[in-house]
Design goal:
Blueprint (H helix, E strand, L loop, with lengths): L1 E7 L8 E7 L2 E7 L12 H4 L1 H6 L8 E3 L5 E3 L2 H19 L4 E5 L9 H12 L4 E3 L1 H4 L1 H10 L1 E2 L11 E5 L3 H4 L14 H10 L3 E5 L12 E3 L6 H14 L5 H7 E2 L1 H7 L5 H8 L3 H14 L5 E3 L1 H5 L3 H14 L26 E2 L28 H6 L8 E5 L3 H4 L3 H10 L2 E5 L12 E3 L9 E2 L11 E2 L1 E2 L14 H12 L4 E2 L2 E2 L8 H8 L7 H5 L5 E2 L18 E2 L3 H11 L10 E6 L13 H6 L4 E4 L1 H6 L7 E5 L4 E8 L7 E5 L38 E7 L2
Parallel strand pairs: 6-7, 6-15, 9-10, 9-13, 10-11, 12-24, 15-16, 16-17, 25-29, 26-28
Antiparallel strand pairs: 1-2, 2-3, 4-5, 4-17, 8-14, 18-20, 19-23, 21-22, 25-30, 26-29, 27-28, 27-30
C-alpha cells in the first residue's frame, strides 16, 4: 500500500513542510510540500535524506553501554536508565549537583519538548552547568542584547523590508535566520530573497567570500577576515557623522550616542577601509543605502563576526545600526507574527533595560564567567571537567550535540570528555562524542514521534504553526525513547521534582509525548486542538495585534556606550594602523549537505563531499604550488588538520576556507574526526564576558603532504 503523509523536517530551523511517500509502512521518499503557505515546496539535500536517517545501516536501534573490554555493546533500555540514574545519584551525593553537566547541541532545539525537558531536568537537579551551541559560535548576540537592552515593540521583519544588511552569514545555504540571528526570512530562502528583490529590497552583504547570498547583493564588501569590528565601526561612524540616524527614536529611547560618536571618531571610512582592505566609498555607500535610503529593514550577522576577533564589539555595532536607525515596530504597527502556540504577550513601544545577567549567579571556575540566558559558556566546559576541586564536572549528558568536534581546542575537549566518570549521549548514530561515551541512548527520530512548532515559532515571519504526528513506526524490534523522556525517566528514578508545563514528575509512568506537547502549549494564543486540526500546517488568523503605547512607568533607554563597550572600541581602534599579519587566515564555512557535524556520514551528502576541502583562491593555490585534490595540512599555533586542497575563486586572497565540525583525518586513538576546532586556542585571545575564543580568522599555514 502506498500513501503520502504530511509532516515537516526537523534537521535544521528551516522546518520545511514535506510530503513523505509511505510504502507498506516504510518511508521511501521525501519531497517539499508545494502547497505549504510558508516553505512553498522547498526542501534540501538534508531533508530528502530523512529516509536514510531512518533506515541507514549506522542507526542505533538499541541503546549501547561500554563494557569491560572498552567496546560499546547493546543494553536493555530500562537497564541503561536504571544504571545511569544510580551513577548520577552517586556522583551528586558525593560531589554535589554541580558535578553534573548538560550539553544541548544544535539538534536539541528543533523539537518542541527536548530543550525544555533538559532545562527542566537541570533545574530539578539544581545544577547550573547547562551548556549549549549558542555559546560556541554566537554568544556575542546574547552579550550585545544584554548590554544594550531590548526594544519591546520587536524587530522589523524581512518580508516587509526595503533594505537588509547581512554580515558573515550565508542563509541561502545555511537556511538560518529569524529574529534571534540575522533576521533573514529563512523559510525557502531562495524564493524569499527573490520575492524581496522583486519588491525592490536592497541587499548589502559583507563577507570575505563571495557567497551564494553575496551573489544576489546590490552592494558587496569583501573584507579581510577578522576585520568585521573595524568595518562596522566605519559604517556606524558614517551614520553618526552624516546624522542619518532616526533622531526622534533616539531622543526618546537611546542613551550614549555622544559617547559612541566620540569613541568611533578614529574609524573614518578611509581608516576602516585600510584596516579591512575594502574601498572607503563602499563603506559610505553601505551606510547610505542602509540608513538613509532604506526605512524598513535590519542588519544581522551570522557566525562570521561572532566567531572572529573582537566578536562582542562587532556584534554590538551590528545592533547599534538597528538601534540608531530605529528599525523596530513602533506604536500602532501591526505585529506580523504575534504567535500561535505560545501565550499571548502584548508588545509595547518601550525598552527593557540591559540585564547583564553574567554579573550575578554561578560562575565558571577558570575565568569566573557568569551565565547568560541561563547557560554557562561552552568555551569553559572542558576546563570545568579537567580542573580539579569543588564544582568539578564529573558527569555529562549530551542531547543532540557533538562536543568532541564542536568545542574549541578539540584536543583539550577530547581529553576532557575522556576524563569524565560518566558520559551519556542521546544519539541515533556513532558520532565522535558517542565514540567516547559510557552510554549511548538510542532515540526516536522526527518522523517517528509527535511534535509541534511552538518552541521556535518566533522564527516565522507569519503566525504559522503545525502539529506533526508520526508518519512511520519505529523499526520492528527496536528499543527507542523520545529524547525528552530520557530526562523524565532519570528524574523519576532519582526522585527529582522535574516539571514540564503543568506535569510534575512522580513515581507514576511518564506521560505521553502528546500530553507533554499539550502541557507546554497551555495558554497558547491559538488552542492546540485547532492546530492539530490542520495536519498540513497553516497560517492562523486569530485577529490582528498592534504594538501598544509605551507604559508610563517604563522609562529605561537602550544603552549604546557603556564603559566596557567603549573599552572594547578603543582596543579595536588601537589596531587601525597596525600592519596586518602576513600569511593565510582560516575561515569556516557552511555547506548545504551538512548541519555542523550532522549528516557527515549520510550517503548522499558524502557522495557530494567525500572529504572536507581546504579552499584557497587560485592565486594562493598557484603560489603554494598546489594541485587540485592533493592532501594538505592546515596548521595553526594550536594544532593541525588534514584536508583536500581545492580552488575557489569566490574567496579573496590570503584565506583558507574549511567547513567546521567534521573532517576525514584523525590521529586520535578513538578515530575522532579532525575538526577546525583543533586549530582554535581556548586560553588566549578570548572575550572577557563570555570567554569566546577566536574560531575564525586564525593565522595558519598550508603544507603539502603529497
Amino acid at each position: 500500500m502506498t500513501e503520502i503523509k504530511k509532516t515537516y523536517c526537523r534537521i535544521c530551523p528551516g522546518f520545511c513542510a514535506v510530503d513523505v511517500t509511505i510504502e507498506d509502512g516504510r518511508a521511501v521518499d521525501v519531497r517539499g510540500d508545494r502547497n505549504d503557505p510558508v516553505t512553498r515546496g522547498y526542501t534540501c539535500i538534508k531533508g530528502v535524506q530523512n529516509t536514510d536517517l531512518l533506515y541507514g545501516q549506522g542507526r542505533f536501534r538499541q541503546s549501547m553501554r561500554r563494557d569491560a573490554s572498552g567496546a560499546l555493546a547493546p543494553v536493555e533500555l530500562d537497564d541503561a536508565l536504571d544504571q545511569i540514574a544510580a551513577r548520577l545519584k552517586a556522583i551528586v551525593d558525593q560531589h554535589g549537583p554541580r558535578a553534573v553537566g548538560i550539553f544541548l547541541g544544535t539538534q536539541a532545539w528543533f523539537s518542541a519538548v527536548n530543550a525544555p525537558a533538559a532545562t527542566a531536568f537541570a533545574a530539578a537537579l539544581d545544577t547550573p552547568c547547562l551548556f549549549g551551541t549558542m555559546t560556541i559560535d554566537q554568544s556575542a548576540k546574547w552579550v550585545a542584547s544584554e548590554r544594550i537592552g531590548v526594544f519591546n515593540g520587536g524587530p522589523q521583519r524581512f518580508d516587509q523590508a526595503d533594505v537588509w544588511m547581512l554580515i558573515g552569514t550565508n542563509p541561502l545555504v545555511s537556511v538560518m535566520g529569524g529574529p534571534s540571528t540575522s533576521g533573514f526570512g529563512h523559510t525557502n530562502p531562495t524564493k524569499t530573497l527573490r520575492d524581496a528583490r522583486v519588491r525592490g529590497m536592497k541587499l548589502i552583504v559583507i563577507d570575505p567570500r563571495r557567497t551564494e547570498t553575496a551573489l544576489q547583493a546590490d552592494l558587496f564588501l569583501q573584507p579581510r577576515p577578522g576585520e568585521d569590528a573595524a568595518l562596522l565601526a566605519g559604517i556606524v561612524h558614517v551614520v553618526l557623522r552624516e546624522k542619518w540616524y532616526d533622531q526622534a527614536f533616539c531622543d526618546r529611547h537611546v542613551d550614549g550616542i555622544a559617547q559612541l560618536r566620540a569613541a568611533l571618531a578614529p574609524f573614518t571610512p578611509e581608516a576602516a577601509a585600510r584596516r579591512a582592505d575594502v574601498n572607503a566609498d563602499d563603506i559610505v555607500a553601505a551606510a547610505r543605502i542602509f540608513a538613509q535610503q532604506g526605512r524598513r529593514g535590519m542588519a544581522g550577522s551570522g557566525t562570521g563576526p561572532n566567531m572572529g576577533p573582537h566578536s562582542n564589539i562587532a556584534e554590538h555595532l551590528v545592533q547599534c545600526l538597528n538601534v540608531l536607525c530605529g528599525r523596530y515596530l513602533r506604536e500602532g504597527d501591526e505585529v506580523p507574527n504575534p504567535g500561535v502556540l505560545q501565550p499571548f504577550v502584548a508588545r509595547h513601544a518601550d525598552v527593557s533595560p540591559p540585564k547583564r545577567s553574567w554579573l550575578t549567579g554561578p560562575r565558571s571556575r577558570r575565568l569566573g564567567l557568569g551565565r547568560i540566558f541561563g547557560q554557562m559558556m561552552s568555551a569553559e566546559l572542558a576546563d570545568e571537567i579537567l580542573l580539579e576541586g569543588s564544582g568539578q564536572i564529573k558527569a555529562l549528558i549530551c542531547l543532540g550535540g557533538n562536543p568532541a568536534v564542536a568545542l574549541p581546542d578539540q584536543a583539550k575537549a577530547i581529553a576532557a570528555l575522556g576524563a569524565l566518570e560518566l558520559l551519556v549521549t542521546i544519539d541515533p548514530r556513532l558520532s565522535a562524542t558517542a565514540k567516547l561515551a559510557d552510554y549511548v541512548i538510542a532515540p526516536t527520530l522526527a518522523f517517528e514521534r509527535h511534535d509541534h512548532t511552538g518552541f521556535l515559532e518566533a522564527m516565522f515571519q507569519q503566525p504559522y504553526a503545525r502539529y506533526a504526528t508520526p508518519v512511520v513506526a519505529a523499526p520492528a524490534g527496536s528499543q527507542l525513547i523520545d529524547d525528552w523522556k530520557f530526562f523524565w525517566e532519570i528524574a523519576r528514578r532519582m526522585g527529582g521534582p522535574m516539571q514540564l508545563g503543568n506535569l510534575v514528575c512522580s513515581a507514576a509512568p511518564a506521560p505521553s509525548t502528546e500530553e507533554v506537547l499539550a502541557a507546554i502549549a497551555l495558554g497558547s494564543r491559538v488552542p492546540l486542538d485547532e492546530v492539530r486540526a490542520q495536519p498540513a500546517g497553516a497560517i492562523f488568523d486569530a485577529g490582528k495585534i498592534f504594538v501598544q503605547p509605551p507604559r508610563p512607568e517604563w522609562t529605561d533607554k537602550l544603552e549604546l556606550a557603556a564603559a566596557d563597550v567603549l573599552d572594547e572600541i578603543a582596543a579595536v581602534a588601537a589596531t587601525l594602523e597596525q600592519a596586518s599579519a602576513p600569511g593565510l587566515l582560516l575561515t569556516v564555512r557552511r555547506v548545504r549537505e551538512f548541519v555542523n557535524s550532522g549528516l557527515t556520514d549520510a550517503a548522499k551528502s558524502r557522495a557530494r563531499i567525500p572529504d572536507n576541502p581546504a579552499f584557497l583562491h587560485p592565486d594562493d593555490f598557484a603560489q603554494l604550488g598546489l594541485t587540485d585534490g592533493e592532501k594538505v595540512a592546515v596548521v595553526s599555533a594550536t594544532g593541525r588538520v588534514t584536508a583536500i586542497a581545492r580552488c575557489d575563486p569566490t574567496l579573496r586572497r590570503g584565506m583558507v576556507s574549511v567547513t567546521h565540525c567534521w573532517g576525514a583525518g584523525s590521529d586520535d586513538e578513538h578515530q575522532i574526526p579532525e575538526s577546525t576546532s583543533r586549530l582554535v586556542a581556548s586560553d588566549t585571545g578570548y572575550q572577557s564576558i563570555n570567554g569566546m575564543p577566536i574560531m575564525t580568522a586564525i593565522p595558519v599555514e598550508v603544507l603539502r603532504l603529497g
